[in-house]
Amino acid sequence: MSIKELLAGLFPHLARVCVDQVICSGATIRLRARTGTTEAACPGCGVRSRRLHSHYERRLSDTAVGGQELLIHLRVHRFLCRNDSCAKKTFVEQVPGLTVRYGRRSLGASAALQAISLALGGRAGARLAGHLAASVSRMTLIRMLRRLPDPVVEAEGPRAFRTAD
Ligand SMILES: [Zn+2]
Fold it and tell me: Is the N end or the C end of the chain the one with fewer CB atoms within 10 Å?
């Protein structure tokens, strides 16, 4: 296995971005990355657009690497929606497997913190997350827990009224 294959296996969520710089400082690793997107679908109407409006830098907290906090400084594009009847005039591209709208964490980091919040709740979860180089407040964990959808429960009639055929 080559180093390139190892990196692709360790960071599959970064496959769609170009990493320009890696900066290690103290217990934090910062990646400067950008997308190469030239077209994106408007989340309001679904119409694809190539008309760039601007770009800006998002900061995402990712899952820790080697016990070090990983922060991604990701340059993303804002597009103009081409559909005149759409309420959205501009929209920001999302990177599949990495970003969600308004999210400050990668999808992987969000999933890990959701699992921690489900298992341990706020205070203990925040302590564990801190040990895993993914510092988060207990209130953030509790908010994540509250946003999770309710589990699906199969509707089942009372067993006492069931009859064997
Ligand atoms: Zn639109």
Answer: C
Q: Which of 162, 157, 161, 121 is nearest to 140 (CA)?
A: 121
Compute CA distances 49 → 36, 66, 113, whole Å: 14, 39, 34
Residue 129 near residue 113, CB atoms below 8 Å = yes
Query: Model confidence over 19-60: pLDDT tens digits?
Result: 999 999 999 999 999 999 999 999 999 999 999 999 999 999
Alpha carbon of 14 to ligand 1 centroid (Å): 27
Q: Strand, coil or helix: what is 125?
A: helix
- pLDDT range class, residue 160, cuts 50, 70, 90: low
HSE of 66 in the Cβ direction (CA atoms, 13 Å)?
Answer: 7
